[in-house]
Specification:
Pfam families: SpoIIM
Helix content: over 70%
Radius of gyration: 26 Å
Shape: elongated
InterPro entries: SpoIIM-like
Number of helices: 12
Order of helices and strands: HHHHHHHHHHHH
Oligomer: single chain
Keywords: Membrane, Transmembrane, Transmembrane helix
Number of strands: 0
Organism: Winogradskyella echinorum
Number of domains: 2
Protein name: Stage II sporulation protein M
Distance between the termini: 21 Å
Structural class: mainly alpha
Length: about 325
Amino acid sequence: MREASFVKQNKEKWIGFENALENNAKINPDDLASYYIQLTNDLSYAQTYYPGSKTLLYLNSLASQAHQKIYITKKESKNKIVSFWRDEFPLFFYQYHKTLLYAFLIFMSAVIIGVVSTLNDDSFVRLILGDAYVNMTIENIENGEPMAVYKSGSNIGSFLGITINNIRVAILAFALGVFFSVGTIYVLFSNGIMLGAFITFFYNNDILEKTSTVWLHGTIEISVIVIAGCAGLVMGNSFLFPRTYSRRVAFMKGAKDGLKIVVSTIPFFIIAGFIEGFITRYGEQMPWVLAYGIIFVSLFVIVYYYIIYPITLHKANQVKLDNRASELIPKPQLT
């Protein structure tokens, strides 16, 4: 194989590994061992067929860095947590954008079913939300306090209870993905139908505008449940569609990736719980500009961090890879 072809074939693997080492990114030990074995194999090949080349010098340097990463204990970077949220996770999550789209479509399909069913059958909302909740809400509406349920309890108690419950739902949406993604689809579908029935119930009672109070915290809450559903689909689909891996290896990788996605949602659930515990109860007295400002900022943060930023970061990384690759590929010699 010509040296240029050899470099072109392996450049992304080498530079990706180099970036991980330079940024002191946390690499799974199994992945690190696999990368190191591949790297040493490439190094041996270059020593045999391209002695004295720039490619050989580059691989020697990279292998040395990898050796230190494996065998020398290094002090962890103080900015490790910052690096994870700023660089590592967004780049990692880019590969699962299509899975996120599937989770969103499943959820929205359920919302539409909930809306249509409630519009055509008044008893449907009781079936989904329960008689107790519907009767309580109707009573609150008659008393002129349709959102009174969000004013009950203490601020801190509501914040903690809501946050813990939301995280529980996210973990459930992820964990049920072990049943070949069917469990996750059920969680997404049931929550979507509940949301559709809830919105339509308020619409039927001519107080749809009051739901803006709910969206103060619900924007993040609902969005992140969909993301947790994405995590469950990642795990479940890894077993159904293992690609070139064995099913066991593919499932282990999918479970780890899904868990990483779930972990990323925890700060957002805490924010949603804080808003519901401390802000939502004052939503009806809040100026509409402030209320809708919180809603749109919440939506923008979610869309930016999970969709726009990973795409931007991926494109920037690709440019960096291409620039480094152009430096590695030997230029043709003029004769």
